[in-house]
From TrEMBL:
Residue intervals passing through the bilayer: 20-40, 64-90, 111-132, 144-164
InterPro entries listed in its UniProt record: DUF2254_membrane
Keywords: Membrane, Transmembrane, Transmembrane helix
Protein name: DUF2254 domain-containing protein
Pfam families for the chain: DUF2254
Organism: Marixanthomonas ophiurae
Length: 430
């Protein structure tokens, strides 16, 4: 049963990333509410309202038709304009920053909810329009439903003003990187907290996996999620330990060996384990924090490309990377899952030195000719070396990247070279 709920949660997370998710739900709610109001009108809700607040009820059928028709036409135009603004936002973000940012922008809940409010109000007004009978008897008009339709339309106007403000903020690169940074820190903090609850002795005694039995993946896709508790339960039941040979975020090809076990497993057990591994066609930061490093790095690289030449954005990107790397240094590179002092699962992780190399390799290519950006990279490495309780392997990786950076930087000004060299020497001496 727990495995079923985990799959439902994963499916729900995938749906949330679709731009039509909230609009579809709110549209359905608008349709259901319109039907409920039609039933309420038959019970005489408008008759009761006109006796208490007669000024709020439309008493003329032609006026009611005109009001609702105007609301529907105006909201349709408003919705088309809003959708056009969303598409423009996605196009500019893709061309100016990185195509990898699109999933995060598409899944923006505020944009989805506003578009859903438009659709829900339009659907409600359409069905209310159908229920109007052009009769001389004012009690046959759905006065309360018409009043609600006008109120919902006014709310849509307020939502449109908020939409314009929000979309103007969403296109700003600082806000985009803020969103990426917040998602990555949330994922990293949850991982670090889990590791802090794991006993160090348990991690150190996980056996060598060199001669274990290998199993291939039944399908392809990005390794996105793992139902840890379900797999631990399988390991306890079968008295086994397993090693997942690929880190989260890596694209796994079908029939590639991605699973090892200390004992030979039957097909039923293997299928049960793979059913708790989620492979998808998309990547999301909330599932894989490494994607945040990739996205921010790509923003910096795109900013330093000859076509854009925006070193200011590159420097801002390095600031975000510095904070993320500092947080990443609090995480170990072991990837062991245990329960009650016994380790059952070991999963391959992207080691700190690999992550630092991937980021620095991309930045060196485009930033080695700019003194200010190169200096910012050196400051980043210096800050990372100053982190408390830094592991020796992390220190060695930082020093190695600093030495490589000094070899590739090249400036026409001798002063720039001396400044960079002096700064790097001070860091290497610490």
């Amino acid at each position: 049963m727990k495995q079923f709920f985990i799959r439902i949660r994963t499916f729900y997370s995938t749906l949330q990333s679709k731009i039509a998710f909230y609009p579809s739900l709110i549209s359905l709610a608008g349709f259901m509410f319109a039907l409920a109001m039609i039933i309420a009108e038959k019970e005489g809700i408008s008759r009761n309202l006109i006796e208490v607040f007669p000024l709020l009820v439309v008493e003329d059928g032609d006026t009611a038709l005109s009001v609702l028709s105007t609301c529907i036409g105006g909201l349709i135009s408003l919705m088309v304009f809003s959708f056009s603004m969303v598409m423009l936002l996605l196009s500019q973000a893709s061309s100016n920053f990185s195509p990898r940012l699109l999933p995060g922008l598409i899944s923006n809940k505020r944009h989805q909810i506003i578009l859903g409010v438009y659709l829900g109000t339009i659907i409600y007004n359409i069905f209310t329009l159908f229920s109007i009978e052009t009769s001389e008897e004012k009690f046959t008009l759905p006065g309360f439903s018409i009043l609600l339709g006008v109120i919902f339309s006014i709310i849509c106007l307020g939502a449109f003003i908020f939409f314009i403000h929000n979309i103007s903020q969403s296109i700003q690169i600082n806000n985009i990187m803020d969103g990426i940074y917040d998602q990555a820190t949330k994922k990293l903090n949850s991982t670090i907290n889990r590791e802090n609850k794991t006993e160090t002795k348990t991690i150190e005694t996980f056996p060598d996996t060199g001669n274990w039995h290998s199993h291939t993946s039944p399908k392809s896709g990005y390794f996105q999620n793992i139902a840890t508790q379900n797999i631990i339960n399988i390991c306890k039941e079968k008295d086994i330990k397993i090693y997942i040979t690929v880190p989260k975020g890596l694209f796994v090809l079908k029939n590639i060996r991605v699973l090892k076990s200390d004992k030979k497993l039957d097909n039923e057990t293997v299928n049960a384990i793979f059913s708790n591994l989620n492979f998808a066609r998309g990547e999301y930061i909330q599932d894989n924090y490494v994607l945040a490093f990739k996205q921010i790095t790509e923003i910096a690289v795109r900013a330093m490309s000859p076509g854009i030449n925006d070193p200011g954005t590159a420097i801002n990107s390095i600031d975000y990377l510095t904070e993320l790397f500092a947080l990443r240094m609090q995480k170990n590179d072991l990837g062991v899952f245990s329960e009650k002092g016994t380790a059952y699962i070991k999963m391959a992780v992207v080691h700190f030195d690999e992550l630092l190399y991937q980021v620095m390799a991309s930045l060196r290519t485009y930033c080695s000719q700019d003194p200010t950006v190169a200096q910012k990279l050196i400051w980043m490495l210096a800050y990372l070396k100053q982190q408390p309780s830094i592991e020796k392997a992390y220190m060695e990786a930082i020093d190695e990247e600093l030495k490589v950076l000094l070899k590739v930087v090249s400036f026409d000004s001798e002063k720039d070279m001396k400044t960079i060299q002096k700064l790097a020497d001070n860091i290497l001496e610490t």
